[in-house]
């Protein structure tokens, strides 16, 4: 009369030689895509999901994970609401093998403890030390502090800023912004820069006061560890002031659509940032672009598609390994990630090293500038992947 | 009983901006009597009641009730001392039933607080039951029993007036303040209320301070009358004296009432 | 004492028809048997549900219970006393935070150390409730001073302050990402998935099952307390404060004190809701206690029916449950992709439309529907009633046997509080 | 001009408040409507102005015509548009508006010049209002509010003016003034339908009267004639002191002992 | 510090325009319109979508028209049928509207930050040595004109009185022949127009353009409306300016305020609001609620 054991799936079922459990039924692996489809990050989530889909479609066509399992998705929307994220996580977990996408810093943090006890490998969309310290997390990017440092080192190297300069910084409330700030401080100290920093909230939209503050102190650049809207506002204020000041940003701080706004021209000229996934005008990026255009009949707005593609490729590696190990249970998947240690994604993203918990999986990235002409609005300006030996440990 | 008046108002003054709504008003009300206050519209009668029940503060003067100074007390404290009031403009809880409105009159007689009520403590239940019984008695007395379960807002104006009176009675006051209790009632109903008030003073040792424009009722019921005009007392005396007072006739009565064909 | 007899009249104008029945004034709608039967059935359903439903639904149930508890408290304040408050997320957040700090263990996080006192969870729960209540007490002088929308706005400030505190007081709250909420346990019964959970009728009583029962128990207590309040002298006083505060004070209600107390009470409810909310989510994050939650709460009490306890519960189920249910069942709808919509969009649309629909068709909320249904059931037996005897002209009183008037009035009435917006009895009653 | 025929009204699902009421106000006539509390007088006015639905009531049968046009089908504003205006029960002044603004609302339908003239006229009638011009309605005394309510309706320049207990709360001297005003308005061609508990006044003002009892017309006739009826004398005119008259509603069998517990 | 002052004032003017939208509807119907933010976004969206086609001024008209029509539709179809419900219910009705509109608009806007094509772009002029974007200067001028016009209308036309009467007692207002439907319609229409106008300035320099976060920005007008007094037209202006200045100064003194926790700037307008309300519960210019019995 009563319901069966919690979870329902036939745990320990043997299919061939591979042990499977929750998240697999028959020959179908279900991966979770828990993102923000209606909230502030809807568009980003959508493109990331499309990239994921693009990759797995190809794999499924070619025979699937270790030639046997096709991958399917359980897609849910938490609308950038933590409470929703948690309850949806609970609902999805019995049916998914791992989380291919889990959007949101505090959202990922809120489910982290559960994910650890449930053995669900997950790919969050943020790169904090907190998340990177967990065995079940595949941090998809350089930690925010190193990312900021990297951009600054590049700008120094190019002579956009010089040692001894004053630089302004605007960073977002929250651990992303704080980490970026920390990185900027480290780089500033190393290079004898004076940092004028102000913290802002997601709901702020007018950066006049902050920029004026920096300009009045003769800043030669303004760094941004915040959201694209703020980047755009900074550019607008600089442009109105007739300033000629460089800008550097963290990887979540820009979006190609900024080019169309007031201040867009200023950005195209003055703004530098790093990206973890290849731009779409070069190398592997071009291939992804082509595949995307075939499927959707137009170019994507950002290179978030490449990001999705890259993390899917890494997940593929992990699943293949787990299959090889004969254990495709959630536990087996986490174990496979540990076994592998280092993951590659066919040049879509830098090689990621997950062996040292709490540390950045990579220390290199592409440096980009915004460009109206380039697909996805970005062009790579560094000579391939860029790194600097100055970065903090 | 001592000879001390139940209520004594001395030299009360209330100002609203430039308007003096009460200006040097003094009078006293003896226990067990019906004392009326009359005067033209806007003379300050309701203001006087507002002072007595603590809604307005006097700028000058004092009010003593059973020898106790009321001038600084909050309305709810004054009510606890035994003053009940029916309002001129209905001040009932329109969406609550008549019974609930009458039970509101028991507010100052009951004690149960948030905790005891919320927990349904036996003491709270017992209190409720006891007071409800009494309230039903009062309702029957005012012919409201058929309406007990109706939301007050659905009653006709006249019936709502009766609920007002009943609620004031439910306060078990020793001094009852009535502000135009029979406005909106016809002659027969007025007479009914008048006889009821008479009965109450004799049977319950009730003292009544009555504000009313119905001269027939005032003259027949009152033991004593105070007349206000522009906030100032212009006369004070027995009904007979007042009826003859030329100042009162000029300011208030117009022609002598006597069934004049208006 | 005095049996007065005055000459009997020839006729009785203004008197009710003899023998008119007094409708039971404090009874709710519906026939007498309806209530106990429904209560019994509900209790049974609540008890057996965990034997059948998946954990996810049980957890959703617990979340709904948490919000329902908060909504009941808010309803006492806003629905009954007319004091609009948007500050509920603040008090919830405070309750949740206190619980987490009191029951939690000190720990190191990437943002720095966090404090914890390791109290037994039950004590920590009480602590959370008490602290939220105290905060309510602190704010109550302000709340007693303000009315209507102005109070609403002032209380909104608390939400922003609360968010700010949660974000900045990292050693307590864990900062932006929050911190995990320690599992509840009581009388040695651990909710956090004990090694060997007790088994009832073949079903393991895990976290979800136990939480379900906890939620049900707390909710029942919260409802019972609120209902008792509403039908007591306190409830009547609160309703009068809403309508006419001056009259209330003359009638003997210490208005300021009551406004303060009801604010306190509602923050106690909110604190309790906050603790449950933390348990339901498993962690606290500042984001959970933002203005969106304030608005959800308002939607809950209005959709449920202002001032109605049962309505608050129904509203909570509606507002919390609907979007989740929709996301679960909407994938079956294939046309979405064609429109470029996701199920999440659809869920939002339906949620918004449902709010609108409820208000359009039943401005007094779900509680109004219940009242209608119940009184329809009640009315059926004595349908015959209201026939009109026509043309009964003559002198007043010349028709002493006015039968039709007698026969009627067994219906209607006794439906307190459901004349939405009906103008009060006097010119002085303004709505907040 | 106004013709109510066979009108029945119910509120929610209670017993009918009006049952087959028929009544007529001729053009330029003045008619009084008497009746005890709860008889249905106010209900009748609500039906004419079509505000019943606000009180969860509705006309279940019958018709109300004004100059031959069915009013039950028009909405309130349109009815006022036909110059049928009422002074509602319980004054209902706008508490947060000043005296002057209250009057402005009343005169909104007529032109500025005309409204100004009407306002001066009202101030002439009620000098008290002029003194209180800038005071908010809420803070007026009861009687002042009543004056304002009447004045406000006069501003609208009605063809049919319906007054629901205009004498309520007014001092005797003012009552006679109001009566004169109403008579003057009537003399100037406005038809009057007046509800009054002060039957003395009502019958003085009106030519014809109806008595409503428990939702039905129980008596009607010329004012002068009705005044002589025993019932009217007894119930509506203050003739209690008449030795012959019996006292009205009774306290028979009623008592109220003191509350057993002291304070 | 004149720079901060000017920044604050110019920002405040924009808030004032939004706040006035709240105030007008509130005055006419005592409804707190939570959907006002959606009207702003809708206006901005239409302007952004059409400015290439119609030119900026044509697009502005289109945006204003869209916001106004939207407001009218909401009034007519949703608010009016339940006009007699308690005001809280009406406020919740507008929340329902807001949920739907925002979902759709945010879906349409997507990841973009959409430009509205203001011809003055990022131009700025120097006032007292500080750079003020032309966008803000235009905003100040428009706000002063609009609000001045409103004051005149309220003072000299019967409309303002009628609106307040209707808000207070609908039945009686109707009994005096006021056309409630029209009053309410006009109020919502005006609110819609104001939303369309405010949209232009809220999305102009130095802010990036139309983004989903605009909804949160609109929310700042809420303390502005209350500080000034919900029923006061000049109050909207003053409240807007106060909120604008509070924000500007909170940023300028960010480091001095750090002991209150970083990011206190966002909380400041609300703190100011609480202080104002505790001292004057009806807001600076609001009418005092007094009652008598
Ligand atoms: N909103 C309502 N809902 C239900 N019943 C109502 C409502 N309003 C009035 N009634 C009932 O209708 C009947 C007639 O009421 P009405 O107000 O017309 O009386 P009235 O003659 O004006 O009395 P009064 O002289 O007391 O003003 C009464 O029995 C009253 O209880
Ligand atoms: N709170 C107040 N603020 C300003 N003026 C007030 C206030 N209360 C009363 N007044 C004014 O004081 C005067 C006296 O009012 P009050 O209500 O006492 O008159 P009243 O004698 O009861 O008249 P009525 O017989 O008409 O009820 C009136 O002119 C009134 O306008
Ligand atoms: Mg008075
Ligand atoms: Mg009446």
Please provide a written account of the structure.
The complex is a heteropentamer of chains A (393), B (262), C (432), D (263) and E (293). With 393 residues, chain A is of the alpha/beta class. Chain A has helices at 42-61, 82-92, 105-118, 129-132, 144-157, 175-191, 208-216, 228-240, 264-270, 283-296, 304-324, 330-340, and strands spanning 13-15, 18-20, 24-25, 28-35, 70-77, 98-102, 122-124, 166-172, 194-200, 219-225, 246-249, 271-275, 327-328, 342-343, 352-353, 366-370, 378-380. Helices cover 39% and strands 19% of the residues of chain A. With 262 residues, chain B is α/β, with parallel strands linked by helices. Chain B folds into 2 domains: 1-82 and 173-187 and 203-262, Rossmann fold; 91-172, 3-Layer(aba) Sandwich (Rossmann fold), CATH 3.40.50. Chain B is built from 10 helices and 10 strands. In chain B, the strands form 2 sheets. Chain B has a 6-stranded mixed sheet, with helices on both faces. In chain B, strands 2-1-4-5 form a 4-stranded antiparallel sheet, covered by helices on one side. In chain B, a hairpin with a 2-residue loop joins strand 9 (224-229) and strand 10. In chain B, helix 3 runs parallel beside helix 6 and helix 5 packs across helix 6 (157-170). The termini of chain B are far apart. Residues 256-262 of chain B have low confidence and may be disordered. In chain D, the strands form 2 sheets. Chain D has a 6-stranded mixed sheet with strand order 6-7-8-3-9-10, with helices on both faces. Chain D has a 4-stranded antiparallel sheet with strand order 2-1-4-5, with helices on one face. Chain D is globular and about 55 Å long. Chain E has a two-stranded antiparallel sheet. Chain E is mainly alpha-helical. Chain E is globular, with a radius of gyration of 19 Å. Chain E has one domain (2-215). In chain E, helix 1 runs antiparallel to helix 7 (180-202) and helix 5 (158-168) packs across helix 7 (180-202). Chain E starts with a helix and ends in a 14-residue tail after the last helix. Chains B and D meet through helix 1, helix 5, helix 6 and helix 7 of B and helix 6, helix 7, helix 8 and helix 10 of D. Bound molecules: adenosine-5'-triphosphate (2 copies) and magnesium ion (MG) (2 copies). One adenosine-5'-triphosphate sits between chains D (11-12, 14, 17, 35, 37-43, 55-57, 89) and B (154-159, 184).
């Amino acid at each position: 009369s009563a319901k069966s054991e919690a979870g329902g799936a036939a745990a320990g079922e043997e299919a061939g030689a591979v042990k499977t459990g929750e998240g697999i039924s028959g020959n179908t692996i279900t991966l979770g895509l828990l993102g923000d489809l209606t909230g502030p990050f809807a568009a980003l989530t959508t493109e990331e999901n499309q990239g994921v889909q693009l990759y797995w479609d190809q794999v499924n066509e070619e025979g699937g994970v270790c030639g046997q399992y096709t991958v399917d998705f359980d897609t849910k929307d938490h609308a950038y609401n933590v409470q929703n994220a948690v309850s949806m996580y609970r609902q999805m977990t019995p049916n998914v093998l791992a989380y291919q996408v889990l959007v949101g810093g505090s959202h990922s943090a809120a489910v982290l403890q559960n994910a650890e006890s449930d053995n669900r490998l997950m790919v969050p969309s943020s790169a904090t030390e907190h998340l990177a310290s967990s065995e079940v997390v595949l941090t998809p990017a350089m930690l925010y502090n190193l990312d900021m440092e990297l951009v600054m080192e590049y700008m120094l190297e190019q002579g956009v800023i010089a040692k001894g300069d004053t630089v302004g910084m605007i960073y977002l409330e929250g651990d992303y912004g704080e980490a970026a700030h920390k990185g900027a401080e480290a780089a500033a100290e190393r290079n004898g820069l004076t940092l004028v920093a102000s913290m802002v909230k997601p709901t702020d939209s007018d950066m006049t006061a902050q920029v004026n503050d920096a300009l009045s102190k003769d800043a030669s650049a303004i760094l941004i560890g915040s959201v694209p809207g703020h980047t755009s506002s900074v550019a607008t204020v600089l442009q109105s002031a007739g300033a000629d000041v460089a800008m550097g940003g963290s990887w979540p701080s820009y979006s190609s659509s900024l080019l169309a706004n007031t201040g867009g021209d200023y950005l195209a000229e003055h703004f530098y940032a790093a990206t973890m996934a290849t731009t779409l005008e070069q190398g592997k990026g071009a291939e992804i672009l082509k595949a995307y255009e075939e499927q959707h009949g137009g170019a994507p707005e950002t290179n978030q598609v490449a990001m999705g593609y890259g993390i899917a490729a890494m997940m593929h590696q992990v699943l293949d390994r787990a299959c090889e190990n004969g254990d495709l249970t959630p536990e087996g998947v986490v174990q496979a990630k540990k076994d592998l240690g280092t993951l590659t994604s066919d040049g879509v993203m830098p090689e990621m090293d997950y062996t040292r918990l709490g540390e950045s999986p990579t220390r290199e990235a592409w440096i980009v500038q915004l460009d109206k002409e380039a697909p996805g609005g970005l062009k790579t300006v560094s000579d391939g992947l860029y790194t600097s030996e100055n970065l903090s440990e | 009983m001592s000879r001390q008046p139940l209520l004594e108002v001395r030299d009360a003054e209330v100002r609203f901006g430039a308007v003096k709504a009460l200006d040097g008003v003094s009078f006293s009300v003896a226990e067990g009597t019906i004392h009326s206050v009359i005067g033209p519209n806007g003379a300050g009668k309701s203001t006087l009641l507002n002072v007595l029940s603590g809604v307005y503060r006097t700028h000058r003067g004092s009010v003593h009730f059973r020898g106790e100074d009321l001038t600084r007390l909050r309305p709810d404290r004054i009510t606890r001392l035994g003053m009940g009031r029916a309002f001129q403009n209905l001040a009932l809880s329109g969406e609550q039933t008549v019974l609930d409105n009458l039970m509101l009159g028991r507010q100052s007689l009951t004690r149960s607080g948030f905790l005891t009520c919320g927990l349904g403590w036996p003491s709270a239940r017992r209190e409720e039951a006891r007071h409800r019984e009494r309230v039903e008695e009062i309702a029957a007395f005012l012919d409201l029993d058929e309406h007990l379960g109706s939301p007050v807002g659905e009653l006709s104006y006249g019936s709502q007036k009766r609920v007002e009176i009943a609620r004031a009675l439910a306060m078990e006051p020793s001094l009852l303040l009535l502000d135009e209790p029979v406005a909106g009632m016809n002659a027969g109903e007025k007479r009914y209320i008048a006889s009821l008030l008479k009965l109450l003073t004799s049977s319950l040792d009730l003292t009544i301070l009555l504000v009313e424009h119905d001269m027939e009722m005032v003259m027949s019921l009152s033991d004593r009358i105070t007349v206000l005009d522009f906030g100032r007392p212009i006369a004070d005396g027995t009904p007979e004296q007042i009826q003859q007072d030329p100042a009162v006739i000029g300011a208030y009565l117009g022609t002598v009432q006597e069934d004049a064909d208006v | 004492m005095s049996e007065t007899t005055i000459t009997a009249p020839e006729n009785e104008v203004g008197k009710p028809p003899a023998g008119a029945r007094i409708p039971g004034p404090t009874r709710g709608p519906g026939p007498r048997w309806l209530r106990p039967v429904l209560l019994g059935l509900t209790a049974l359903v609540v008890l057996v549900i965990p034997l059948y439903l998946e954990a996810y639904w049980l957890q959703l149930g617990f979340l709904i219970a948490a919000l329902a508890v908060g909504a009941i408290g808010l309803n006492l304040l806003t629905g009954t006393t007319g004091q609009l408050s948007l500050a509920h997320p603040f008090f919830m957040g405070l309750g949740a935070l206190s619980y987490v700090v009191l029951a939690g263990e000190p720990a190191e996080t990437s943002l720095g150390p966090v404090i914890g006192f390791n109290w037994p969870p039950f004590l920590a729960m009480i602590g959370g409730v008490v602290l939220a209540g105290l905060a309510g007490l602190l704010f109550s002088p302000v709340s007693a001073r303000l009315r209507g929308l102005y109070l609403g706005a002032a209380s909104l400030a608390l939400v922003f302050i609360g968010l700010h505190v949660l974000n900045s007081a990292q050693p307590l709250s864990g900062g932006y990402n929050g911190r995990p909420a320690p599992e509840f346990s009581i009388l040695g019964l651990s909710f956090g998935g004990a090694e060997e959970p007790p088994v009832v009728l073949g079903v393991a009583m895990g976290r979800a099952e136990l939480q379900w029962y906890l939620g049900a128990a707390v909710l029942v207590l919260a409802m019972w307390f609120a209902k008792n309040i509403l039908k007591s002298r306190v409830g009547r006083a609160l309703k009068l404060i809403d309508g006419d505060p001056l009259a209330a004070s003359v009638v003997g209600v210490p208005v300021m004190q009551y406004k303060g107390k009801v604010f306190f009470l509602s923050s106690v409810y909110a604190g309790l809701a906050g603790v449950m909310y933390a348990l339901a989510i498993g962690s606290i994050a500042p984001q959970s206690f933002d203005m969106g939650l304030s608005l959800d709460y308002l939607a809950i009490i209005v959709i449920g029916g202002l001032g109605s306890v049962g309505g608050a519960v129904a509203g909570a189920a509606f507002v919390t449950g609907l979007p989740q249910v929709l996301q679960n069942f909407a994938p079956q709808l294939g046309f979405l992709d064609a429109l470029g919509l996701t199920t999440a969009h659809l869920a939002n649309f339906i949620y918004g439309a449902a709010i609108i629909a409820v208000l359009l068709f039943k401005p007094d909320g779900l509680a109004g529907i219940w009242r209608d249904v119940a009184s329809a059931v009640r009315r059926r037996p004595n349908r015959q009633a209201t026939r009109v005897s026509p043309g009964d002209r003559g002198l007043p009183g010349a028709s002493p046997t006015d039968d039709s008037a007698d026969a009627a009035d067994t219906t209607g009435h006794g439906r307190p509080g459901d004349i939405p917006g009906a103008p009060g009895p006097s010119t002085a009653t303004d709505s907040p | 001009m106004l013709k109510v025929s066979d009108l029945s009204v119910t509120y929610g699902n209670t017993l009918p408040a009006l049952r087959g009421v028929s009544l007529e106000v001729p053009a330029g006539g003045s008619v009084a409507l008497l009746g005890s509390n709860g008889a249905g007088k106010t209900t009748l006015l609500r039906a004419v102005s079509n505000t019943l639905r606000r009180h969860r009531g509705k006309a279940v049968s019958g018709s109300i015509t004004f100059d031959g046009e069915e009013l039950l089908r028009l909405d309130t504003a349109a009815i006022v548009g036909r110059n049928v205006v009422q002074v509602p029960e319980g004054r209902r002044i706008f508490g947060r508006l000043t005296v002057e603004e209250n009057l402005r609302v009343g005169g909104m339908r007529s032109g500025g010049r005309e409204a100004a003239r009407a306002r001066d006229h009202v101030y002439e009638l009620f000098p008290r209002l002029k003194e209180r011009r800038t005071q908010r309605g809420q803070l007026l005394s009861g009687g002042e509010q009543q004056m304002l309510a009447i004045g406000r309706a006069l501003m609208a320049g009605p063809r049919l003016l319906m007054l629901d207990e205009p004498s309520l709360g007014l001092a005797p001297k003012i009552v006679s003034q109001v009566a004169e005003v109403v008579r003057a308005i009537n003399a100037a061609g406005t038809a009057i339908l007046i509800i009054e508990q002060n039957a003395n006044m009502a019958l003085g003002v009106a030519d014809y009267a109806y008595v409503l009892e428990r939702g039905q017309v129980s008596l009607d006739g010329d004012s002068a004639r009705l005044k002589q009826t025993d019932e009217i004398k007894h119930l509506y005119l203050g003739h209690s002191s008449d030795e012959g008259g019996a006292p009205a509603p009774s306290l028979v069998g009623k008592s109220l002992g003191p509350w057993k517990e002291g304070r | 510090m004149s720079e901060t002052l000017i920044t604050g004032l110019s920002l405040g003017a924009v808030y004032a325009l939004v706040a006035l939208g709240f105030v007008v509807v509130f005055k006419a119907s005592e409804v707190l319109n939570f959907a006002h933010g959606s009207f702003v976004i809708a206006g901005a969206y239409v302007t952004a979508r059409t400015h290439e086609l119609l030119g900026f001024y044509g697009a502005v008209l289109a945006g204003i028209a869209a916001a106004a029509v939207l407001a009218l539709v909401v009034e007519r179809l949703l608010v009016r049928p339940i006009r007699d419900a308690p005001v809280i219910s009406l406020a919740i009705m507008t929340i329902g509207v807001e949920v739907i509109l925002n979902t759709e608009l945010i879906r349409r806007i997507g990841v973009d930050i959409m430009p509205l094509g203001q011809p003055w772009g990022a131009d700025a002029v120097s006032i007292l040595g500080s750079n003020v974007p032309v966008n803000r200067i235009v905003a100040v001028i428009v706000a002063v004109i609009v609000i001045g016009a409103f004051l005149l209308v309220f003072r000299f036309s019967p409309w303002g009185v009628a609106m307040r009467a209707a808000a207070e007692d609908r039945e009686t207002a109707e009994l005096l022949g006021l056309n409630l439907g029209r009053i309410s319609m006009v109020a919502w229409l005006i609110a819609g127009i104001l939303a369309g106008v405010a949209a232009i300035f809220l999305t102009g320099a130095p802010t990036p353009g139309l983004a989903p976060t605009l909804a949160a920005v609109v929310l700042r007008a809420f303390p502005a409306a209350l500080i000034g007094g919900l029923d006061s037209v000049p109050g909207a202006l003053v409240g807007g300016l106060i909120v604008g200045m509070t924000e500007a100064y909170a940023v300028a003194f960010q480091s001095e305020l750090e002991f209150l926790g970083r990011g206190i700037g966002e909380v400041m307008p609300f703190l100011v609001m609480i202080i104002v309300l505790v001292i004057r519960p009806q807001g600076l210019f609001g009418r005092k609620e007094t009652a008598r019995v």
